Write a sequence for this structure.
C-alpha cells in the first residue's frame, strides 16, 4: 500500500514538459498503452532530476525497462522524446541471478549475474563476443555504478526469442545485461548509443526511497514552501 501511494504521488508530481500542448507523459502513454504510466512517470522524473543535477545531458531518446513484468512479455520501450513517439517495444532478458521468468533480485556486485536497477547513461559501441554491443554507465552509486566494470551492456542474443519463451515459460537469461533480439539489436543500439538514457524499474522500496534521481520535484517544492513560510 505504501508503495502504491508513493508511485501515485510521484506520478502526480512528475509532470513533464508539454509537447504540442499535451504533457509528454500522456504522449508516451498513448504511444505505448501496454506500458505502466506510473513507471513512465518515474523514468521521466529520473531523466529530469539527472538533467537538473547536470549528471546527464538533455537526451532525445529514453529507454524504459519494467522488470516487474515477466520475461515472456515485452517490457522494454524506447521513445523519441522530441516527437513523443514509440520507437521499439521489445522483450529484454534479465540476469540469471535475478530470477526465472520473473526478476526479483538485483545487484551492483560483480559476479552476481543479476540485473541492476536505476538510471544509466548510454555510451560507446564495440564489437564483442555477443556481436555489436553498447556500453552503459550506471549513474546511481551503490545501485548500478559498477555497470561498466561488470560489462553490463546492451547486445543481441539468440536466447532472446519470444516463441521459445512462450514454450519454456521464460526468456533466456543473461549475466546481467539487458539483452534483446538479434534482429533488432543493431538498430536499437544505434538509436540509443552515445549519451541517451535507460531507466530500469522494479518496485524495490529501498531503491525508490533512496534514489538520487527520484524526488527532485518534491525537494524543490519543499524548498519553495519553506522559503515562502520564512518570508
Amino acid at each position: 500500500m505504501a508503495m502504491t501511494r508513493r508511485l501515485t504521488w510521484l506520478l502526480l508530481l512528475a509532470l513533464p514538459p508539454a509537447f504540442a500542448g499535451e504533457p509528454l507523459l500522456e504522449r508516451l502513454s498513448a504511444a505505448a498503452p501496454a506500458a505502466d504510466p506510473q513507471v513512465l512517470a518515474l523514468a521521466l522524473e529520473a531523466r529530469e532530476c539527472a538533467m537538473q543535477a547536470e549528471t546527464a545531458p538533455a537526451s532525445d531518446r529514453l529507454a524504459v525497462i519494467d522488470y516487474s513484468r515477466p520475461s515472456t512479455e515485452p517490457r522494454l520501450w524506447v521513445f523519441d522524446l522530441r516527437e513523443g513517439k514509440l520507437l521499439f517495444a521489445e522483450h529484454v532478458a534479465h540476469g540469471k541471478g535475478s530470477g526465472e521468468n520473473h526478476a526479483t533480485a538485483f545487484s551492483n556486485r560483480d559476479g552476481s549475474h543479476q540485473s541492476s536497477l536505476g538510471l544509466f547513461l548510454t555510451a560507446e559501441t564495440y564489437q564483442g563476443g555477443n556481436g555489436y554491443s553498447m556500453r552503459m554507465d550506471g549513474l546511481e552509486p551503490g545501485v548500478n555504478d559498477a555497470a561498466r566494470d561488470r560489462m553490463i551492456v546492451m547486445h543481441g542474443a539468440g536466447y532472446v526469442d519470444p516463441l521459445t519463451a512462450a514454450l519454456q515459460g521464460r526468456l533466456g537469461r543473461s549475466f546481467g545485461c539487458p539483452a534483446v533480439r538479434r534482429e533488432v539489436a543493431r538498430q536499437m543500439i544505434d538509436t540509443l548509443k552515445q549519451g541517451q538514457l535507460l531507466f530500469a524499474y522494479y518496485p524495490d522500496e529501498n531503491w525508490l526511497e533512496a534514489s538520487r534521481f527520484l524526488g527532485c520535484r518534491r525537494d524543490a517544492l519543499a524548498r519553495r514552501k519553506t522559503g515562502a513560510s520564512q518570508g
Notes: The chain has one domain: 2-213. Strands lie at 18-19, 22-23, 61-66, 76-80, 85-90, 118-128, 131-138, 153-157, 180-181, 197-201.
